[in-house]
Amino acid sequence: MISVIIPACEADGTIERALQSLMAQTISEWEAIIISDDRQDYQAFLAGRGMVDQRFRFGSTDKIRSGCHRARNVGFEMVRGEYVTQLDADDEFTSDRLAQLLPLAETHGAAADNLIMIDDETDAVIGTVRGEASETANLDLAGFMHLNAPLVPIIRRDHMLPRVPGVEFSEDVIANIQLIDRIGTLPIIAASSYRYRIRTSSMANEGGASERFERGYSDYIERLESADGFGLSARGREAALEGLIAQRALNRAFMEAQKAEPGLGFQAFVGRL
User: I need a labelling partner for 8 at 20 to 30 A (CA). Which of 40, 73, 242, 263 fits?
Assistant: First the structure.
């Protein structure tokens, strides 16, 4: 069984689409763990829309907008599957995603795909995390740090760690770093089976996001330099530190570009480089 953790906050307009993509999977042995982070009863909401499935399970942070990291951790406590992955309430899987990734995750401990980024308003493709790819790549930590978007792996449960408390901005990046440090390399298939929908109202794109990422990167760099280093190995800490310093520099360049072009989005900026 694969446990799919779905944080839900003000997700009325998108969660049906996300769940429909999960229900369309060619593998049926999954459970959806839907965690409310806005105190909404999503079980009642979905039932009212005719979406009832015995594989749906529901939980709550009992808070409002406490953050994805908290919602994912509440969901992790409910996991019954041998494998764990995530699906944001405004994103989608292609129908063969679980079937494609599960064999690799069984062998390597985890596996991910060439995540595709889509403008949620226009449905236009913004890009993929690996660019043009024709075969599976085994990504080490140094290679991962050159990516400009997170990965959404399926993880064998013995390699799954809870999200780091207090890490909200780029929390997926920190989780990816910890995972790759544990397993050595992460296989990334060429297919784009996770549809990451970018919304202008999301935390990563709303006003002031760049400044918050600046603070986040600086905090993480300091933690790698002088604190617990997120529990990474010495080699992992070095690769993560180098990569986060580069990402902070990229974010600073983006902030400068936004001054001249206020409507510029991060992925559009990266696409110009």
Answer: 263
